[in-house]
Amino acid sequence: MLSKMLLPTLLLALLPSTTLAYGRHWNKDSIKDYYTLGCPTTTKPHASQQEQLSVLTTFANEVFVQHDVTTGYNTYAAKNFINHAPEITGNGTALAIAIQGPMLAGGKVELQRIFAGKDANGTSWGTIHFKGINPKLGVGVIAGIWRLVGTCLVEYWDVAAGVQNSTNPIAYF
Fold this sequence. Notes:
- There is one protein chain.
- 33% of the residues lie in helices and 30% in strands.
- By secondary structure, the chain is of the alpha+beta class.
């Protein structure tokens, strides 16, 4: 009886531990991306999780809190970083600086949490979650997701929403 119960468990243990629904594996080309996407000389192609967290924290403070968009992007992001953000239709630091600078002007950002780590494939990721307060756009919640190679930001996605009244007292933040 015990062997009948253990057999399925043992078989499951032999299966690969994690399968991603979307099979793109970035890690094998990461170092290539560091060079082909134009990472600045202020970054390096290999870094610890703590170094990546430090870079994301500094980048978030420079860009979103201090509104020094040019310094933040030119110091930490690849010149031709891949941009999946819906509000910016193109790649690279020049376009991000041109659009984000005016978008942040006159507003305020409250950083909520910043994370850096690796996925099951060994790819480095970082997330910046913040509250944006803008006189023209209102209050919003944004989660920016970066793929990193070493200390260089090479690819970006974001999820953003306007903050609505909610019965949940801890909604959004």
